[in-house]
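TL;DR need structure tokens for one chain.
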Amino acid sequence: MPVSFMDWLRYFAAALLPAAAVAYLCGCFNGAVIVSKYILRDDVRSHGSGNAGLTNFYRTFGGFLTLMVILTDVLKAVAALLLAGMLVGGTFGQYWAGLFCLLGHMFPCMFRFKGGKGILSGGAIAIMIDWRIALVVWGGFLLLTVLTRYVSLGSLWAGGSFPFITWYCFPSPGIVALAFAIGGLIVLAAMPLVMAYARESLSEQAMYYLRNMLLINTYYVMGAAVNTTLIAGVFRAGGDSRFGFVCDTIDMWCYAVPLGFIAAFLLKLPVMWVYFLLCTDEFVKWPWVIGHYRRGTWLKNITREGLFTEEKG
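>> reply
TL;DR here they are.
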């Protein structure tokens, strides 16, 4: 991997950027739109929920052509990971390609940036990356969808569980950050469905809070991902459990609590602005946490030297 800033710049221009473009263009081939608009001559986005996804296509048209939509969405994810993986390579390359494939599926440039929810393509990406990730994501999605008959709940599980099972399988900060970005996209795509179900039981003010909190949390989880992986995973595995305690204590009492007090009681900002500011606490820790990781001082000698010598004696 590149070391210096210039190496990273060259690597980005020569590998990451072309891989992102290839994966995005693969994702733009939306099966539901292609089949409905060019084969059935009836755009799926003009029916039902207006979404260009598999669920809306099946509810609107049903039939054998639904299998063609499934095949298209699966194959484009496979093609994106294989083609982009040739440029970047490794697990990081798979996650990088998966992220931009989903962006292409959800915001396709050739269909006025109105795409699907990305659940099927995301599931195919999970299968391509690791069977353990696919088992957790697909297992929870299918179970919740069958038990509740709400695809949105299964989608929230898929988006929420994907980064955490990634952390378990590949505890690398870069990979985990990409996984949280992918999971955040899926949660973001499921928001309209969640809001539609919640509208029946929540007031307008509660709906406003729910919508904005979901939006804020789609980025907040990325900040928490890097910190959790490094503090709770890497540093503790290296024998440094003190750093997390000190870091969290300073962040809470010197940043989050004073900021919340000033925003809420002195500046009297609206509730959502206070919540937004409080959710920046994970990103404030990044320079300190990443700097500690790069210095390598977290790596301690946690072995018990001379243990077997003492037993023999």
